[in-house]
């Protein structure tokens, strides 16, 4: 047998072994995934009923009741976590991928983001507890930071609307073509936005700071957002980096500004990957328990007030699963079934919608 034939045969054998091991590993993972889903389905579906979603918990040891407070609290915390984490993560990813491309700063942030993705969630919970929950002396640092963040979000929305008005309406009506005048107008818009944010902070601080202290829903949302931000950041950065630079050059040649190139060309080209990352980050935080134990804690009663301890589905599952009552165990399985298949359903539907919208 010639050397070339032996070499080709050896390569085929190695390829077949590698393919077999990869296939076996894939089926091994799928087996345990199916086993977990089947086990949750088998135990959880027996506890599903209308009262589980419409009634509040019964007193300990008394069968009946539901988990309405936990479902509402979970949705509320995750909703505000998405409102906080997704914009911050996307903006940071856009800045790293576009404006700081290739710099030491972008590489450092990327490495830190990768580290933050692998940090245990309980560490994030204790970190947020030390900042937002535990008071430092007589200073309610958590309330101050919450008001500051709220002021920043509102001023950002105000600035976006103001910038939209100046760029799409005012510039077209007045027809300002001087580059110096446009820069002066942008600087004025930025200054007004910053002053508006400072005014909001000064105005809202005495009204809200004492209402946000101790265990509260905002701290839970902040903890989940802290977990989401590095995932969204790295996904956004990677997807934007995959967009060919020739697309940007083509838009530049047509006279578009870098802001419009990013908004109308780059982000649209990478939207499928970015939204996939957002969905994955939401799926991850929706099942977190440890951060909420240190932040939003829990509440046996129905409440939608984020300024106080609020119930969540994951913490309730933990409490009920470790409790002594059989009825609690049944409700814990039912809640696990709901949250597991809800995340699975949202993920599948979102991927299907993205496939229909961006397949061409």
Describe this structure as you would to a colleague.
- The longest helix is centred in the N-terminal third of the chain and has 42 residues, at 3-44.
- The protein is an all-alpha fold and 360 residues long.
- α1 (3-44) crosses α14, α11 packs antiparallel against α14 (326-358) and α13 (313-321) runs antiparallel to α14.
- The chain folds into two domains: 46-119 and 227-360, MetI-like (MetI-like fold), CATH 1.10.3720.10; 135-213, no CATH class.
- The protein has 14 helices and no strands.
- Helices cover 78% and strands 0% of the residues.
Please tally the β strands and state the result: 0
Largest sheet: none
**Coarse shape:** flat
Oligomeric state of shown chains: single chain
Q: Roughly how many Å apart are the termini?
A: 50 Å
Helix content: over 70%
The structural class is mainly alpha
Ranges with pLDDT <50 over ≥5 residues? none
CATH class of the largest domain: Mainly Alpha
Give average pLDDT, whole number: 84
User: What CATH architecture of the largest domain do you see?
Assistant: Orthogonal Bundle
CATH fold-level label of the largest domain = MetI-like fold
Q: What is the chain-wise order of helices and strands? A: HHHHHHHHHHHHHH
CA radius of gyration is 25 Å
Strand content: under 5%
- The CATH homologous superfamily of the largest domain is named MetI-like
Number of helices: 14
How many domains, in number, for the residues? 2
């Amino acid at each position: 047998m010639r050397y070339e034939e032996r070499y080709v045969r050896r390569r085929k054998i190695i390829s077949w072994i590698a393919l077999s091991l990869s296939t076996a590993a894939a089926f091994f993972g799928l087996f345990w995934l199916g086993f977990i889903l089947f086990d949750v389905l088998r135990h959880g579906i027996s506890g599903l009923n209308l009262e589980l979603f419409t009634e509040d918990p019964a007193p300990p040891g008394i069968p009946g009741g539901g988990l309405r407070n936990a479902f509402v609290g979970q949705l509320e915390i995750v909703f505000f976590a998405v409102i906080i984490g997704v914009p911050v993560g996307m903006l940071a990813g856009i800045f790293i991928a576009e404006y700081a491309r290739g710099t030491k700063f972008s590489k450092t942030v990327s490495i830190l983001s990768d580290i933050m993705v692998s940090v245990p969630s309980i560490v994030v919970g204790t970190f947020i507890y030390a900042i937002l929950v535990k008071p430092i002396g007589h200073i309610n640092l958590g309330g101050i930071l919450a008001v500051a963040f709220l002021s920043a979000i509102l001023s950002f929305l105000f600035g976006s609307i103001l910038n939209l008005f100046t760029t799409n309406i005012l510039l077209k009506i007045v027809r300002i073509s001087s580059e110096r005048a446009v820069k002066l107008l942008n600087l004025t818009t930025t200054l007004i936005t910053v002053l508006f944010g400072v005014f909001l902070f000064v105005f809202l601080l005495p009204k809200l700071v004492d209402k946000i202290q101790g265990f509260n829903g905002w701290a839970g949302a902040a903890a989940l957002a802290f977990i989401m931000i590095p995932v969204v950041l790295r996904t956004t950065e990677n997807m934007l980096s995959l967009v060919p630079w020739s697309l940007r050059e083509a838009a530049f040649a047509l006279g578009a500004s870098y802001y419009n190139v990013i908004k109308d060309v780059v982000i649209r080209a990478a939207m499928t990957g970015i939204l996939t990352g957002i969905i994955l980050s939401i799926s991850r935080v929706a099942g977190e328990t440890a951060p909420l134990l240190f932040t939003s804690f829990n509440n046996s009663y129905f409440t939608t007030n984020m300024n106080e301890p609020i119930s969540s589905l994951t913490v309730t599952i933990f409490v009920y699963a470790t409790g002594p009552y059989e009825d609690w165990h049944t409700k814990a399985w039912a809640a696990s079934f709901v949250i597991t298949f809800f995340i699975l359903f949202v993920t599948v539907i979102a991927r299907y919608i993205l496939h229909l919208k961006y397949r061409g």
